[in-house]
Amino acid sequence: MTNWKHIAGGVVALAVLGAGGWAYAKLNTARSAVADDRVALADVKNPEPAAIARGEYVMRTGDCVACHTAGKGPFAGGHEIATPFGTLLSSNITPDRRTGIGAMTEREFFDAMRHGQGSKGFLYPAMPYTAYAKLTDQDMHDLWAYMATVEPVENPVNENGGMRFPFNVRLAMAGWNLLFFDNSGFEETAGQSPQWQRGKYLVDGGTHCSVCHSPRNLLGAEVASRYLQGGNLGFWYAPDLTGNPHAGQGKTPAESLVEYLKTGGKTSLASGPMAEAVEHSFQYLTDADLRAIAVYLKTLPASGVTRPAPLPAESPAMQRGALRYEVNCSACHGVAGEGMGNVAPAFAGNPALQSDDATNPIHLMLVGGRAAATHDKPTGAGMPSFAWKMDDRQIAETLDYIRNTWGNAARPVDPAEVARLRERLGAGKNLPAN
Amino acid sequence: MNRRKAIFSLGTLAASWVAVPGLLAKELHKVPSETRMNEDHLPKPAGRQGYRVLTDEIARKNLAAVFDRLIPADEWGPSASEAGCIEFIDNELAGDYGSGAALYLSGPFDPDNEKKMMGGPQFISSPRERYLTGLKALETWARNTWNSSFHTLSDSRIDEFLTNMEAGKIDLGKEIDSRALFELMLQNAREGYLADPIHGGNKNMAGWKMIGFPGARYDYRLYIERRNENLNLVPVSLIPGD
Fold first, then answer.
1. Alpha-carbon distance A205 to A203, whole Å?
2. Which 20-59 residues of chain A touch chain B by CB within 8 A?
3. What is the mean pLDDT of residues B163-185?
4. Structurally, how many domains does chain A consist of?
C-alpha cells in the first residue's frame, strides 16, 4: 500500500519528463505533416491500384498481420503479448470506424506508425514504431492505401486493459521515448551502393531486425553499440547477425542468407519466431530486396565474441553426450553433424549454435520446434521434444557435445539454465529412469 | 517505488515485449506448429508406489521362486526376480494387460469346444485373476504335497513341478489350466527380463547385456558396413539413467 504514492509519483515523474520542452525532438511529428489530415481511412475511396500493391509489400516487410491477428480475422487485433506487468493486446487495425483505425486520418496513421503516438495515446514499444520511424513517406503513403482495402472488422480491443498500474498509463511511454526513441527518418550513408542503402533501409525499417537481434540495456532500449549482435528474448535468442566468424554470419555466404530468408534455409533452418518472420514476411520479399538485406548484413562489423577453446572430447560427460547424440540425434542431424538438407539443420560449423547464449538449442531440446513452412519448402519439418526422456544434466551434456564437436566450440551449458527454461516453458519433468 | 525504480521497471517491460506472433503459416495447412509432447504421447513408466496386485508376500515369493527357476542367476546375468520381473508383472497386472482390456472375456464359455475352435485354451478370467488364483493354487498344492510353502521347496522339487506343469501333468484344481498358467508365467518372465527398463524389469539392462541387444537406438548407419565383428554396443534404454 505504501508504494502507491511512490508508484504514482514515478508515473508523474515520467510524464513530466515526457512533457518537458526538451522532449520536443523525441516527440515531434512535424515531418509527418506531409500526410493528409482530413480524410479518415474508412472514407478513402479507390486508392491507386499500384499504390495498394506497393503498400501490401510494405505490410509484408513489416509483418503487421502476424501480430495484429488473433482469430477475429486479419488485422482485427487481439493478439496477446505477455509481459511481467500484465498482458498487452494488439490493436484492431482494420478500417472499422469504431473499433479499428477507420476514423484515423493519414496523418494520424503516420504519427502512430512512425512516432508511436496513436489515437488512444502513446503506443507501447511492443509495436516496433522504433523501427517504422525509418519508413519513407512514400512507403507510408502506399501502406495507407493498402490498409484502406482491408476488410473492416468490428472487434473492440482494450489494448492495455490487462496491464497493471502504472504500466497501463500510456503517457509514461512518453518518458521512455524521451530516453530512447530515435525519432529521425532513414538517412542514406555516404559512399555505399544503392543496393546497400536499400538493405539497410529494409533491415532498420520495415523488417525491424534490431527489435530482436540487438541486445537491450537494463532500461529496455536497444544498445546501439551492439547493433544486431544478438539479443535474448526470454524463450528464444535472436542470433548475432554481424560478420563475426564464430557466432555471427562471417562465414555465411550472402546466397545462403538469401535462401534462408526466402525459403527457411537449408543447412541452417529458421524456427521459433524467425520461422514466423520467414513465413509471413521474408518469403514474400523480392529476390532483389533479400539480396540487398544480405549485402547489407555482410558489411556489419564483427561483434567482439571470440571462439573459446572447445571442451575436451575425452571427458566422461562428453562421452555420455556423444552416445546420447548418436542414439537420439544423429539420424536426422547426421553422424558428423552434417544435417539433412532442408529438413534438419547441420550442427558442424553452425554459428547460431555456438553463441554464448544457448537458449535456442535448450528450448528446442525441451519442447521441440518446427522449421519454417514456406512456398518453396513447405515441409515445416518438426524437431521432437526430449524433455520427457532427458533430465537437465543430460540435455546440457548433449548440447555440450554438439557445441564442441566437429570443429565447434562454445562454453558449457549449465544444467540450471535448462532447469529454468524447462520451468518457464512448462516442459514438464523427465520420466524416471528405472 | 521511486522514480528510478519506475523507469527501471518500464525498462524491464520494454525488454520483455518482443511480441511472438502465433499465426500459422498457410503452407502448414493447419498442422500445429507445436511439437511438444502431451501426456497421451508418453510412455507410462512402471510406478514406484509399491505392489498393487501382488500384495500378498507369500504369493510374490512363490512367483519369484517360479521365475527364478525359469531364468536363474548365473554367470550370464541376474535371476528374473533380481532383474525386476516381479515388479514388471505387478505393474502389467495393475494395468490394461492385467484387466485383459484387449481380450474378449465374455461368455459363452465351453472350454473344450472353444479350445478346439481356437486351437488353444480360452479364458473368461483376466490375466490378473489368473495370476491371483494360480498363485493361491500353487501354495495350496505345495502345502498339500510337501507340507511347506511353495517358495521354500528345493530347486529340484520346483524344477520337477514346473516340468510336470509344462507337460500338463499337474492338477491345480478344476478352475486352473496349469499348463496354460505355466506358459503365461514363462512368457511374462521373458518379457520382464527383456522389455525396456521403463516397464520395471530388465534392471540395469541386464537382459539386454546378456543377449547383446543394443536397446532403444534409432540409427545404425555408423555400423551397417561392419560385418562379422562384435560391435560391443552399449545398450541404451528409452529413459537413460546415466
1. 6
2. none
3. 94
4. 3
Which single residue is written with the C-alpha cell 514466423? Answer: A276
Distance of alpha carbon B217 from alpha carbon B215, whole angstroms: 6
A233 vs A302, higher pLDDT: A302
Task: Decide if B8 and A373 are in contact by the 8 Å CB cutoff.
Answer: no
Q: What is the CA radius of gyration of chain A?
A: 23
| Number of residues written out for chain A | 434
Q: What's the domain range around A124? A: 29-180
Is residue A11 within 8 A of residue A166, CB to CB? The reply is yes
pTM of the full structure: 0.87
Check whether B175 has a pLDDT greater than 80.
yes
Q: Could you tell me how many helices (H) and strands (E) chain B has, helices first?
A: 9, 0
Q: Tally A–B CB contacts below 8 A.
A: 208
- Among residues A390, A393, A432, the alpha carbon closest in space to that of A412 is found at A393
Domain-terminating residue out of A269, A297, A325: A297
Report the pLDDT value the prediction gives residue A1, as an integer from 0 to 100.
Answer: 39
Percent of chain A residues past pLDDT 70, beyond the cut: 94
Q: A234 in contact with B at a CB cutoff of 8 Å?
A: yes
SS3 state at A81:
strand
Taking all residues of chain B, what is their mean pLDDT, rounded to a whole number?
A: 89
Hey, is the C-beta of B13 within 8 angstroms of any chain A C-beta? yes
Q: Give A427's contacts (C-beta < 8 A, 6+ positions apart).
A: A366, A367, A385, A387, A421, B36
Position B114 scores a pLDDT of 86
Q: Residue A423 is placed in which grid cell?
A: 520451468
CB of A126 less than 8 A from some CB of B: yes
CATH code assigned at A268: 1.10.760
Instruction: Confirm or deny that A208 is annotated as ligand binding.
Output: no
Q: Does B120 touch chain A (CB under 8 A)?
A: no
Give the gap in angstroms from C-alpha A269 to the nearest C-alpha of chain B: 15
Domain match, A243 and A117 both:
no
Residue ending a domain, choose from A297, A332, A349: A297
Q: Is A375 annotated as a binding residue?
A: no
Which pLDDT score is estimated for A21?
55
What is the sign, positive or negative, of the torsion defined by CA atoms of A388, A392, A393, A396? positive
- Give the nearest partner residue to B23 out of A13, A65, A434, using CB atoms: A65
Express the helix, strand and coil content of chain B in percent, nearest 5 each: 50, 0, 50
**A168-182, A389-403, A405-419: range with lowest mean pLDDT:** A168-182
Domain match, A350 and A386 both:
yes
Query: B3 vs A273: CB contact, 8 Å cut-off?
Result: no
Residues A37 and A131 in one domain: yes
Residue A312: half-sphere exposure toward Cβ, Cα within 13 Å: 3
A225: contact with B, CB 8 A cutoff: no
Question: Do A55 and A162 share a domain, yes or no?
Answer: yes
- On whether both A170 and A104 belong to a single domain, the answer is yes
> Average pLDDT of chain A?
91
d(CA A369, CA B36): 8
Give the residue from chain A lying closest to B222, CA to CA: A335
In a domain, A92, yes or no: yes
B130: nearest Cα among B72, B173, B85: B173
